[in-house]
Design goal:
Blueprint lengths: L1 E2 L11 H14 L9 H21 L8 E4 L2 H15 L3 E6 L4 H12 L3 E6 L9 H7 L4 E7 L11 H10 L3 E5 L18 E5 L11 E5 L37 H17 L1 H20 L4 E3 L11 E6 L4 H12 L1 E2 L1 E3 L4 H7 L7 E5 L6 H16 L3
Parallel strand pairs: 1-11, 3-4, 3-5, 5-6, 6-7
Antiparallel strand pairs: 2-8, 7-8, 9-10, 10-13, 12-13
Amino acid sequence: MIYLDNSATTFPKPKEVYDFMDHFYRTHGVNPGRSGFDAAIETGELVSDTRKMLTNLFNGGGDFNRLTFSYNATDSLNMIIQGLALEHPGCHVITTMLEHNSVLRPLYTLEQRGQIEVTYLPFDERGYVSPDDVKKAIKKNTKFMVCTHCSNVIGTIQPLAEIGKVCHENGLIFVVDGSQGAGAVDLDMQAQNIDVYCFTGHKCLMGPTGIGGSYVREGVTIGQTRFGGTGVRSAVPGHLEEYPYRLEAGTLNLLGVAGLNAGVKWIMKEGIMNIHNREMVLWKKLRDGLKEIEGVTIYCATSVENQNPVLSFNVKGWDSSDVGTMLDVDYDIACRIGLHCAPKVHEGLGTINCHGSVRFSVGAFTTEQEIDTAIEAVKDIASMKN
């Protein structure tokens, strides 16, 4: 199989991830923070070590306990968005047309319940949101903004520092969906004016599914929406308010944390931007190859700058689902088709009524030969309608 669906989840994972998960769970598959025996203490140390690595990777700040774990980015975004709405009832929220349903659906639900008001900012013909548009959208009751780091449909990396600066100058909390950004490109929460960064482990951080989290900078208050066991101060009737317990309830996905720990170590060893630059060389080859094919329309993809290795396209005369089926059945190429859980992106692209697009997403283990094969496969499919 030629795997070009890395935006859904990176595959395969580095061997180090598989090996460490197996070893860890066989030797330390116990519950940290609940007991004082050696294995439990050592498991707790791995959890703390992972918090520290991710805090440093994101340059979140000095308190690594504000790095909390969840199931995935969607899980964290739900906690953060609902928690902020709880702290600021009736507020106005700004977001963008580039967002994934992990942002759109919580915001929509809260707006339908009359708890918030939402403004959706457009993106330009290149696929970027303007910081000026953010400024224009701010109202007296605007309290926070949620923005994707990188689009999962067109791969554009948004100007976070500039958007965050506008937010901070106007007293807004800036929340970033880092699903496609964490581990894909360098990140500096402090320099980029990010208050909350939500991430998932199973994409460019090279961990398994079922693990993610968020980092909340000091001074930002997230209302609590979950309550339960922490293994600490069990006699207290209410859920603990300090981090990390504030946003964590119950037993962590320890196997997921272990895999995430190994994945982060692997990308740090390889170098995030080294991986990114290799991927972008292949992305450019793919883009240039598809651009030469008659009947193929590519969306945005104007430059290798501020871009992730994600490419969306359509073939004239074919539904995207038909193209995806042929790529799978006839060429053994795995890709993603449809709306990619981001319907407003397709509204902006004009592809909402033609069932979205085909998406190729390059990964750390993609080869040049695989890119050549994908180009030839699309060329064959396009020729059937010409």
